[in-house]
Amino acid sequence: EAPKVEAIRKEHKRSLKLSYKEQRDLDLLPEKIEALEKKLDELNACLTDPECYNQRGLSTVSEELAATELEYEEASDRYLELLEKVEEMEGNQSS
C-alpha cells in the first residue's frame, strides 16, 4: 500500500507544476495583452477620426476592432486562468 501512496504523491507533485506551454504563455501574455490594448486604443481613435476611417474604410476598421477585442479577451482570460493556477499551486505547497 505504501507504493500507491508514494505514486499518488509523485503524481500530485507533477500536477503542481506548469507545463512548458503554460509557463511560456504566462511569460509572454502580458506583452501580448499590452500590445492588444494599444491596438484597441488606436482602432477606437480611428473610429472617432473621419479622415482615418474614410481612408481605411469604416467596415474594415470595425472588423479589425471586433477581431482584436476577441483576441484581447481570449488572451486576458488565458492569463487570468494561469494566474489562478499558480496561486492554487502556491497555496497547495504551503499546506
From TrEMBL:
Keyword Acetylation belongs to the record: no
Domain ABC transporter Uup C-terminal residues, every copy: 17-82
MF GO annotations: ATP binding; DNA binding
Keywords annotated in UniProt: ATP-binding, Coiled coil, Nucleotide-binding
Keyword Coiled coil belongs to the record: yes
Source superkingdom: Bacteria
InterPro entries listed in its UniProt record: ABC_tran_C (IPR032524), Val-tRNA_synth_C_sf (IPR037118)
Coiled coil regions, renumbered to chain: 26-92
Name listed for the protein in its UniProt record: ABC transporter ATP-binding protein
